[in-house]
Amino acid sequence: MTVIIIAESAFVSLGRYLSVLTEECGFTVGNIQMCWIQSEHVDKYNLPNELNNTRVTLVQAVRAAAVEKGMDFVKRSPGTCTAESKEEAALWKDLVLEASRKPLAVFDEPNSSVVILKPHLILNQRAGTAIQQLIDLELEPTGLTQLSVSSSMADKFLEPYRGVLPSVPGTVKSLEGTAWVLQLVSLEDSKDVVNQVREACGPYDTVIAKKLFPKTIRAKFGVDQCKNAVHCCDLPGEGPVYTKFFFKK
User: Fold this and answer.
1) What's residue 248's pLDDT?
2) Strand ranges, E, within 73-139
3) DSSP label at 105?
4) Is 123 within 8 Å of 236 (Cβ atoms)?
5) Cα gap 67→45, rounded to integer Å
6) Which residue stretches of the chain have pLDDT < 70?
7) Which pLDDT value is given to residue 165?
């Protein structure tokens, strides 16, 4: 196990870096959290000084010879750093756990969207590619957290969709397990973030998505109507509601 830190300056390539880690380097992501590094974190966890007072994404990455492979990854990935020993990796793992207790996000931002990357997408190592497709919309990732979604949590979240979604029980099942939750905002007020993200995700039904919108995330990575890769905000104003549900602890 090792911990790789992706600096804020590299967020434009966040999804691409995650894809390289999982699809090319053979890592499994054990945990992923975006957090704000403060001076006490730099001192407590022996972090590079240049990370002070910036956002980072912490990736707890697992594979054989993880520390060595992490160092290989960093050499070709500008804006990243990694633990250089097993002891440092164990120390930084504590930072990941600390970050998971209070996930970073922008609360009460009306022009925001939240995307839940479903467990099957993560298991298939394609979550990074999906994230990059969303970031390429020139949207700003302002929150990213990994959650263990229980049946009761998924059921509570989907309660407002009963009578709207074609298969709520199946959708509940598709959310159970390890999911990543991504918040996106725009630095330009003229952008409709919810609409942009919804269009990039594609139709809820993957059959329709594959036939009519083959470049969308659900068309590329969806399996069926329930395991359709992602769940995202559909209506204006849902961003703050989703953010409060998934990020506020």
Assistant:
1) 87
2) 80-82, 112-117
3) -
4) no
5) 17
6) 249
7) 77
In a domain, 133, yes or no: yes
Longest pairwise C-alpha distance within the chain: 53
pTM: 0.97
The verdict on residue 65 lying in a domain is yes
Same domain, 116 and 234: yes
- Choose among 117, 156, 158, 115: nearest CA to 137: 115
The domain boundary, picked from 48, 70, 101, lies at: 101
Which residue range is the domain that position 59 belongs to?
2-101
Which CATH number characterizes residue 185's domain?
Answer: 3.30.70.141
**Own/partner pairs, 197-205, CB within 8 angstroms, 24+ separation:** 197/113, 197/115, 197/134, 197/137, 197/139, 197/232, 197/233, 198/113, 198/232, 198/233, 198/234, 200/133, 200/134, 200/137, 201/115, 201/229, 201/230, 201/232, 204/165, 204/166, 204/228, 205/166
Round to whole Å and give the CA distance between 61 and 27. 6
Among the listed residues 137, 148, 131, the one whose alpha carbon sits nearest the alpha carbon of residue 230: 131
Encoded tokens for 160? 């407002």
63 with 178: CB under 8 angstroms? no
Matching residue, tokens 């942009």: 196
CA distance 230 to 243: 16
